[in-house]
Amino acid sequence: MENNTEMTEFISLGLTHAPELQIPFFIMFTLIYLIPLVGNMGTILLILLDSHLHTPMYFFFSNLSLVDFCYSTAVIPKVTAGFLVGDKVISYSAYAAQRFFFAALATMENFLLASMAYDHFAAVCKPLHYTTTMMTGVCACLAMGSYICGFLNASIHIQDTVSLSFCMSNLIHHFFCDVSAVTALSCSDKHVSELVLVVVASFKIFFALLIILISYLLIFITILKMHSAEGYQKALSPSASPLTTVSIFYGPTSCHSMDSDKIASVFYTMVILMLNPLVYSLKNKEVKTAFKKVVEKAKLSVGFTS
């Protein structure tokens, strides 16, 4: 039985072996990466520049945009390069780093969505106490807690990684170092490590999802009690974008077959990250207003300098 330190590299089999699809996939994945890159970085810059967006909701959204950007960067560039140059080899250390950041960022996204749901609950259900409930310190603690939980979860994944021994093929039947695809190559007793990962993953998802569901349930109950159409619309509109994001994030599920896993992975590692900035920018009047102001200022600046 070989020790895991003797496994120096893995080879990803990618999405397809068809040569004629390599360039189209390269173009498609490049666009999928550039859209969230521009969208998320633009959103963060927009929130920083516009004082009207210096609220708890946009504080959490800017953190979510940063996590989404890092999330996509941890996976997509390596996959895209594989389509262009055909290099689908990943070193063991690079695999460990990718797994660490993938686990950390996915957990951060879970808890940031839960923090946003709690913020909307406080805004709709406890409006008179909102400013004292969602103070700057509270928002900072919620965001920091999301990051800490992410790194703790990633540390468990890394501990699981170094405990595995590999004595089989180093061919990964996936387009990136997915946990299940790599674990399938191990000749160690995987029952304990798989149980630990399932328990940890189930807890983080259940806890975050419970907060989200309870928050939005109480929000909808409060909205239904409103008799004013204006109040109804005012309370409902801030929840539309986050609720759409939550639905997208928790929507896809991975199946047991490798091909189905690949399809699901494309969705939650790429498509979701591409949709998040679009959902918030297209559905949010404040963001669109702030963007128009920035564009107008840029036009005035260009006109003045010319």
From TrEMBL:
UniProt key word Transmembrane: yes
Segments forming domain G-protein coupled receptors family 1 profile: 39-252
UniProt KW Transmembrane keyword: yes
One GO MF term attached to the UniProt entry: G protein-coupled receptor activity
Membrane-protein topology: Multi-pass membrane protein
Any one GO cellular component localisation term in the record: membrane
Keyword annotations of the record: G-protein coupled receptor, Membrane, Receptor, Transducer, Transmembrane, Transmembrane helix
Top-level taxonomic group: Eukaryota
Main location: membrane
Listed transmembrane segments: 23-49, 56-76, 96-118, 130-156, 195-223, 263-282
Compartments it resides in: Membrane
Protein function: Putative odorant or sperm cell receptor.
Annotated protein name in UniProt: Olfactory receptor 5B3-like
